[in-house]
C-alpha cells in the first residue's frame, strides 16, 4: 500500500497564503473604528451577556481554517467563555450551547 499524503482535516481548498491574507485582514479590521465601536457596546455576539470591551476578542463566525473570511459579516465580539466553547465543542454541541442562551431570553 502507498503511503497516504498528510491532509489537514478542515482545510478545504484554502491555501496557506489565503489564510495568511485573511489573518492580515483580521488585524486591519481589529484596528478599525467599526470594530472599536462594536467592542464599545460590550456585548458578546453569542451569549449576549455584557462584558468590558477588554474581555472581548474578535471571533470569526466561520473560522479562517474552514474558509471563513475576515469581513464585517464574519467577525463578531466574543467573550472568553464562548471563545473556548467554540474551539472545544463539536458543531452540534456548540449549537446546543447557543440554544441555552436563547431559551433564557
Ligand atoms: Zn459569550
Give the secondary structure arrangement, pairings included.
Blueprint: H1 16-31, H2 33-41, E1 56-60, E2 75-79, H3 80-88, H4 91-104
Antiparallel strand pairs: 1-2
Bound molecules: zinc ion.
Zinc ion is lined by residues 44, 46-47, 49, 79, 81-82.
Textual characterization of the structure:
There is one protein chain. The chain is mainly alpha-helical. The chain has one domain (16-104): Orthogonal Bundle (DNA Binding (I), subunit A). It is 46% helix and 10% strand. The protein contains four helices and two strands, in the order H-H-E-E-H-H. The chain has a two-stranded antiparallel ribbon with strand order 1-2. Bound molecules: zinc ion.
Please describe the structure with a list of short key phrases separated by commas or semicolons.
105 residues; mainly alpha; flat; 4 helices; binds zinc ion; DNA Binding (I), subunit A
